[in-house]
Specification:
Blueprint lengths: L8 H4 L2 H9 L5 H13 L3 E7 L2 E13 L2 E11 L8 H15 L4 E6 L4 H10 L3 E6 L18 E7 L11 E5 L9 H7 L2 E6 L3 H7 L1 H20 L2 E7 L4 E7 L5 H4 L5
Parallel strand pairs: 3-4, 7-8
Antiparallel strand pairs: 1-2, 2-3, 4-6, 5-6, 8-10, 9-10
Helix pairs in contact: 6-8, 7-8
Length: 265
């Protein structure tokens, strides 16, 4: 018998039948509720948005710690279908931001798919987070209707509570173009460039529906560009949405000293 930590995200999946067997679960709805209740009691928070007496949106998170740094991890923010795009998600995030400030945190972090333009615009442009961490296949294989069949690459979004987006990003050069083609000058941009532009699809779900091969090509191209840029000291500081959707990246030398170290690598 060997006892060891489980690290691989796809191996984590193997604990599910054990949970079902040990506790007699047929469905896992109750387990989700139990885990969130436990997280709330042990330092987390569950925030709800109510339309009169009906709960129509939620946000929950819990304390995180990496490389000896404590932060708040925002795991999920969701709104009922029919109530989306009405400002509820933003209000939930702003409430959570003030909760974190009042509980002594400097930073909130969460993950999101870097190729989903609506999420990128919401997280980076509207809320004001930035990202400098690219996680390859973070969740392993997922089976939900949004992520099935495609590698689960993720950004870590960092929302520092006193951070203000820089006024200028310098002379930005295109590192990944609107067709998902990596610039032949990528290495030079990463080494010497002042700013960079990384395009993503306007609608990545539509790309996935058109064919997994094209979605995988975008995954690979964006990973190549973003990993090199992040590794060279660039940060995704803003996002432009629309028919042309792209990240705006700047060098990290504008960050104050306490934010300079990336706690997620």
């Amino acid at each position: 018998m060997k006892i060891a930590e489980v690290h691989d995200p796809d191996e984590v999946r193997q604990i599910v039948p054990i949970i079902k067997s040990a506790w007699g679960f047929r469905e896992l709805d109750s387990l989700v509720k139990d885990i969130v209740v436990a997280m709330k009691f042990h330092g987390g928070v569950v925030i709800g948005a109510y339309d009169e007496d009906k709960l129509v949106g939620m946000n929950f998170g819990f304390p995180g710690r990496r490389n000896n740094y404590d932060y708040f991890y925002s795991h999920m923010t969701g709104v009922l279908e029919g109530k989306k795009y009405s400002g509820i998600g933003y209000s939930l995030k702003m409430y959570q931001k003030e909760w974190a400030r009042n509980h002594g945190y400097d930073m909130i972090a969460w993950t999101f798919d870097p190729l989903m333009s609506l999420n990128a615009n919401f997280n980076i442009h509207k809320i004001g987070a930035f990202s400098r961490t690219f996680l390859t296949n973070f969740y392993g294989e997922m089976e939900d209707s949004i992520n099935a069949g495609i590698r689960t690459d993720r950004f870590v979004a960092e929302l520092w509570l006193d951070y203000k987006r820089p006024d200028s990003t310098g002379d930005a050069e295109i590192a990944l173009d609107r067709n998902g083609k990596v610039s032949p000058d990528l290495a030079r941009i990463a080494e010497k460039g002042k700013g960079a532009i990384v395009f993503i699809p306007e609608n990545f779900n539509a790309v996935k529906r058109s064919g997994i091969a094209e979605a995988a090509r975008w995954r690979d191209a964006s990973r190549k560009a973003l990993e090199l840029l992040f590794g060279s000291g660039f940060i995704a500081v803003d996002f432009h949405s629309g028919a042309e959707s792209y990240y705006i990246l700047a060098r990290d030398n504008f960050l104050p000293q306490k934010m300079r170290k990336n706690v997620f690598i």
